[in-house]
Design brief:
- Helices cover about 50% and strands about 15% of the residues.
- By secondary structure, the protein is α/β, with parallel strands linked by helices.
- It starts with a strand and ends in a 6-residue tail after the last helix.
- Its EC number is 5.1.3.-.
Length: about 375
């Protein structure tokens, strides 16, 4: 079995690391990095820490408008597929790199498998929502992290080769939690104590590109009763500067460069609570039992809200302040995202699918 895995953005490196490790024991993997994220701290650090093999191809696409970036990825992925002739293209999440891989797979009639299929925010103004819908509809195999994701696919008429696998990020965090507690020195490096700081991340286009939303979030964070550690995504650094908010952010928050996975997990595990608009961080907060204040109006990870570990506040100063200052208790701690074996399940399903689709031997 030859699998072409396509990744490009930070969360995809973390997800692919879980699968690649075991995949390479049973199959040939061609790892393609589109180059969507390219700064050392947005890309290389994850390959090093998570021991992800060096990509066989780095397409070097980097930042661009959504249309051009996706189109350039499509144009660069197609010859790789032609040259390597994989049995399946394996995609993760909802970025432009995901969509580009789905387009090439469906145009060249190569099986497409989508990890994190079926997630919906029901907000079509979010670029990721369109990427998810298009990728799921172009996929031959949908690997859903939760029962809710399967329901979303069914509602859209996607019912063949849909599998519940659990979430690969849960697999990842089980390993990272222990390793980060052993290895990370980030608390000492920053001079913060467990439970005595708030962690924050912001990078969604709707929050960073709108100056009013970014200012409202900044106002809410600066009102937090504890110091706020803010590892800033490069997009957010650019927008803070462009919107004239940089001085305020750096003077009132502990604004630092993006962190490697182990340092970030260590902070998330020990923070009093986290404020974020990230999809992955909402889930990881839930896994680590850190209360999460989500700087969005809706979420794909509805289970985290239902059980009370996650609160949706949107880019609203008063709501952020309230969620960061008042005490609230989660209702329950369910396990909707599997048992830490999602990666293994995905590989078995790929093997099974490819064995089933082998042509019958001629008699
Ligand atoms: C992308 C994904 C988003 C995901 C996020 C993970 C899409 C549409 N969005 O958003 O779903 O949550 O990655 O972090 O695919 N930049 C750098 N250096 C880098 C990478 C980006 O400076 O290594 C800057 C550039 O100015 C770029 C901007 O960040 O224009 C945005 O990067 P891009 O990859 O387009 O989108 P993200 O906001 O990172
Ligand atoms: N992350 C990290 N360093 C950081 C911020 C986030 O390693 O400084 C990790 C985080 O643990 C999670 C992933 O990056 O696994 C989430 O990525 P991001 O928030 O960029 O994207 P999203 O999940 O929203 O697509």
């Amino acid at each position: 079995m030859r699998v072409c895995s396509i990744v490009g953005a930070r969360p995809q490196f973390i997800k692919a690391a879980v699968v690649s490790r075991t995949l390479r024991e049973v199959a040939e993997e061609v790892l393609v990095h589109t180059g969507q994220h390219y700064d050392e701290e947005m890309s290389d650090v994850f390959f090093d820490e998570l021991e992800i093999p060096k990509p066989e191809y780095n397409l070097g696409i980097e930042s661009d408008t959504h249309g051009r970036q996706t189109a350039r990825m499509v144009a660069a992925i197609e010859p790789v597929i032609e040259e390597t002739d994989p049995d399946v293209i394996l995609l993760y999440g909802d970025t432009n790199s995901t969509l580009a891989g789905a387009i090439v797979g469906s145009k060249r009639d190569v099986a497409v498998a989508h990890v994190e299929a079926g997630l919906r925010s029901n907000n079509r103004s979010m670029p990721e929502e369109i990427n998810r819908i298009l990728t799921d509809h172009a996929s031959d195999l949908c690997f859903a992290p939760s029962r809710d994701a399967i329901r979303n696919l069914t509602d859209e008429g996607i019912t063949d080769d849909v599998y519940w696998t659990g979430d690969v990020m849960y697999d990842a965090i089980l390993d990272a939690r222990e390793r980060s507690a052993d290895q990370s020195t980030i608390l000492d490096d920053l001079g913060v104590q467990p439970d005595e700081f708030v962690l924050a991340t912001v990078h969604r286009a709707s929050n960073t590109d709108d100056p009013e939303n970014l200012a409202a979030i900044l106002d809410g964070l600066t009102d937090a009763p504890l110091p706020v550690v803010f590892p800033a995504h490069p997009r957010t650094v650019n927008r803070l500067q462009e919107h004239g908010l940089w001085e305020r952010a750096t003077s009132e928050l502990e604004l630092i460069e993006p962190l490697g996975y182990l340092d970030f997990v260590r902070l998330l595990d020990t923070a009093e609570r986290v404020a974020t608009d990230s999809g992955g961080v909402q889930k990881e907060a839930f896994f680590l039992e850190t209360r999460c204040v989500t700087l969005r109006e809706e979420t794909e990870w509805v289970e985290t809200v239902e059980c009370g570990w996650n609160r949706l506040v949107g880019p609203e100063t008063a709501a952020i302040r309230e969620a960061l200052t008042t005490d609230w208790e989660p209702k329950s701690t369910p396990r909707p995202y599997g048992d830490g074996m999602a990666g293994q399940r995905i590989i078995s399903l790929l093997q099974q699918h490819l064995a089933d689709s082998e042509p019958e031997e001629q008699l």
